[in-house]
Amino acid sequence: MEMERSNLEYSEMEFPQDFRCPISRDLMKEPVIISTGVSYERKNIEKWFFTYKKKTCPATMQSIENFGVTPNHTLKRLILIWQNSHSPSSSSPCSAPSSSSSSPLPSFKRDEMVSLLKTLGSSPFKVNSLRKLKEIIEIGDEMKLDFIILGGLDSLFQLIVQILVDCSDFMAFRACEEALGVLQLLVIPEEDDGNGKVIKLLSKPECMKSMVTILQRGSKDARVYTISILRKLGENSNFNWNVIVNDQGISMFKSMLELASDEISTKASSSTLHVMIKILDSLKKSRSKAIEAGAMCTLIELLPESNRSKCEKILQIIKLLCECAEGRVAFIEHRLGIGAVAKKLFNTSEMASKICVKIFSLICSFHPTEKVLEEMIVYGAVKKLVVLLHMSGQSSTKKKVLDMLKKHGNSWSRYPCFPSEIREYLGLDRR
User: Fold this and answer.
1) pLDDT above 70 coverage of the chain, percent
2) Is 429 exposed, middle or buried (0-12, 13-18, 19+ CB in 10 A)?
3) What is each CA distance from 184 to 156, 198, 199, 210, 403, in whole angstroms?
4) Residues 224/188, Cβ–Cβ less than 8 Å
């Protein structure tokens, strides 16, 4: 009786379309997601597959081969929060308290959020409204989820892309900055679990272009908000960076390099380097734009004073840039390049040493000029490579070292500091 009454209450209410099962059009209780990314009520989709023997997705009519279903926990939690905040009995003094995981939101805060969102479009005081929304969202995850349910993402999107219409409008620019401050607080899932509204919003070309504009011209706080959002986006393996790289790649990398050089905000600097790694690793054509933006020069000059974590990130970016011809040329043309990397070999971490060897291997394979080989021995890189060769065990790093010594040992053996036993071990010419 209690369940029937509850179902009747919700059947008489207008609930979000995303909460309806595409098959029955009823509010879902046990939402599951199938291989096409669409969520259904478990019993309905299982009947579709196993009773009616269908081999398509009911919503998209795509043919499918994998009939497995996965519980959509995020969507279920959103539905529970919506139910608790809309239930007629939720405000009743006689109603029993629910568990903390599905407790209704504080009504006064939710009402304030509704009011702020309603006035956001028409109010001239958008910045103040966004700051109040930010304070509410910071209360906890339930507030964040309710913000999404109430359509807050659409409001943020309108404010963020407004600067593309008139970037000279100071108030629109400030509203965009504050909107990004709200957006960076929202949880961005690592994988699209069927909800994925934040990812969809941020993937829109207009939104990405606005964020790059803020990176270039925004206040320091706004730039930090933006880089935080981009870092969260980078955790999603399917995210496509083409939109911003194709359109504003060089200017974007210049702005990122400024943030990476920030000695005061180490968190912003670290996040920026992390984002650069994600972009350069997933999109090879972006590397030439980063080099044109001056990435190699900036990173080499940051390397000597960087701590362990920052050093590893910088070396990883240098390695990615050295995988293309322009990057290798930029590296060897910088007077501190070989010396800066040689100094970090053995002096930072095992991971840093492995990356250093990869960098030298790339340089020695494609640009083994006399000047390069001489600098490697003068700055102590060869001496450290020989030490690596003596370490026990087999590894890909040790193999790279051996290959370099075999290829260029004759050049290095002319110097008195080159160990005689290595000369004999490698069977090098005596001169």
Assistant:
1) 86
2) exposed
3) 11, 10, 12, 14, 47
4) no
pLDDT band at 107 (very low <50, low <70, confident <90, very high): low
The answer to whether residue 109 scores a pLDDT higher than 90 is no
Helix (H) or strand (E) holding 31: strand 31-33
Question: What residues have CB less than 8 Å from 60, skipping those under 6 apart?
Answer: 36, 38
DSSP character for 29?
Answer: S
Q: Which residue has the tokens 């279920």?
A: 76
- Best CA proximity match to 149, nearest among 13, 16, 31, 11: 16
Structural domains of the chain, ranges and CATH numbers in brackets: 2-87 (3.30.40.10), 105-239 (1.25.10.10)
Cβ-based burial of 389 (10 A; exposed 0-12, middle 13-18, buried ≥19): middle
Long-range CB contacts (within 8 A, 24+) of 270-275: 270/309, 270/310, 270/313, 271/224, 271/227, 271/228, 271/231, 272/227, 273/310, 273/313, 273/314, 273/317, 274/231, 274/234, 274/313, 275/227, 275/230, 275/231, 275/234
Q: What does the CA dihedral 228, 229, 235, 241 come to, rounded to 10 degrees?
A: -120
Residue type, 370: E
Question: How long a stretch of residues is the chain?
Answer: 431
Indicate whether 260 pLDDT > 50.
yes
The whole-angstrom separation of Cα 282 and Cα 380 is 33
Residue 41: which H helix or E strand, with range? strand 39-41
Q: Which of 288, 377, 287, 296 is nearest to 333 (CA)?
A: 296
Are the C-beta atoms of residues 113 and 150 closer than 8 Å to each other? Answer: yes
- Read off the pLDDT of residues 13-45 as tens digits, 9 standing for 90 and up: 567 788 889 998 888 988 999 988 899 999 999
Q: Among 76-85, 272-281, 406-415, which is the least confidently predicted range?
A: 76-85
Contacts of 122 (CB under 8 A, 6+ apart): none
Both tokens of residue 46? 């299982």
Separation between Cα atoms, residue 4 and residue 18, nearest integer Å? 22
Long-range contacts of the stretch 165-169 (C-beta < 8 A, 24+): 167/213, 167/217
Do 321 and 280 contact (CB within 8 A), yes or no? yes
Q: What is the mean pLDDT of residues 239-243?
A: 82
